[in-house]
Amino acid sequence: MVTGYSIYVRNAGATYGSTPIWTGNPTPTADGSMTMNVTFTPAPSGVNYFTVVARTASSESGIADERGLGTPNPCRHDHCTSKTGCDFSAVPDGFSCDDASFCNGPEICVGGGVRHQRVPKL
User: Fold this and answer.
1) Is 115 exposed, middle or buried, given 0-12, 13-18 or 19+ CB atoms closer than 10 A?
2) What are the φ and ψ backbone dihedral angles of 103, each rounded to 5 degrees?
């Protein structure tokens, strides 16, 4: 039986720590949803990921789908399926990561970073 919830936060490119930033049991609203405001120190990169786990008296569930805050690098995978099982690999070279800005031209991923492609002058 669920006795409460824990919220974990991680910086981009890192796994979740063993200590949650919040633990408790919020009161459900009229529609059954639950909300909680938390305070945390943002990552130097400006990108953080959050997840929730359900707790029982003796264990925790697996993590819920992560939610991000900030603008992640589109050329790196950054996703966890457990608190310590994460994929931080580079997106394959040549993958389009265009930011849709006409002014700076199209971008592709190269070596885990964004590279602007040169557009020939007409």
Assistant:
1) middle
2) -70, -30
Cα–chain-centroid distance for residue 41?
15
CA distance 37 to 9: 13
Strand order in the sheet with 67-69: 22-24, 4-11, 48-55, 67-69
Across the range 74-88, mean pLDDT stands at 96
**pLDDT value of residue 77:** 95
Using CA atoms, how far apart are residues 9 and 92, in angstroms rounded to an integer? 27
Using CB atoms within 10 Å of the CB of residue 97, give its burial: 0 to 12 exposed, 13 to 18 middle, 19+ buried: middle
Q: What is the pLDDT confidence band of residue 119, given thresholds at 50, 70 and 90?
A: low
Q: pLDDT digits over 9-49, tens only?
A: 999 999 999 999 999 999 889 999 988 888 988 999 899 99
CB-count burial class (<10 Å; 0-12, 13-18, 19+) for 64:
middle
Please tell me the pTM assigned to this model: 0.84
| Residue 68 three-state SS | strand
